[in-house]
């Protein structure tokens, strides 16, 4: 994904079609609206800060010590250069968050993977962070991601076009089981993100005890970040590690 002037070079209108042009074309004006993610429009800033304070307080009273991993300067430079081309769609503070969070994930949990895998995971994470914030400002772009993906249509955001391109190449990097989980987990996560925003303020019924867990497991990205661990070049098939996936996914969701 490049800037607005270069997106046409990377967009594949029929990423998932069997050939030919996209069944739905969007004019340049319809794709990639400018989003302002200012604090004044962030209805959830106060709630996020409250939750952050609770987590920080909990960690400060435990034996937790932050893991200090070496920074991957090559990945940071490459990712920084790409997401800077998103500046017309994303506010600078959000770009900084995307860069730091995405690289920290890669440096902390995926240092054993190849540079190519690490960059895939980093840019994927940046796209998903964008989706989390986009859900508040343009729900249609998020809710239509899955539909447009399977129909081979261009997305309503050029950053989601980049995400669709990544999913198209998932099977090159991970086993069939892993790639399928990454693809379906991505659609699940974006759908759950849209639901979270759409139902903000809706009280949870006393009898719906498992609903928060249900929503969290779909929005949390557990399957994707679990399968990212196991490169196809390490295991062509998932047979040898299938049975440890539930444990890893449980802790992945818990930490996220």
Automatic annotation (TrEMBL):
Keyword set, alphabetical order: Lyase
Protein name: Uncharacterized protein
Region (Disordered): 1-35
Compositional bias annotation for Polar residues: 1-12
Family that this chain belongs to: Belongs to the trichodiene synthase family.
Domain of life of the source: Eukaryota
Gene3D superfamilies: Farnesyl Diphosphate Synthase
Listed Pfam families: TRI5 (PF06330)
Keyword Lyase listed: yes
UniProt biased composition (Low complexity): 17-34
Record organism: Pycnoporus cinnabarinus
Single annotated GO MF: carbon-oxygen lyase activity, acting on phosphates
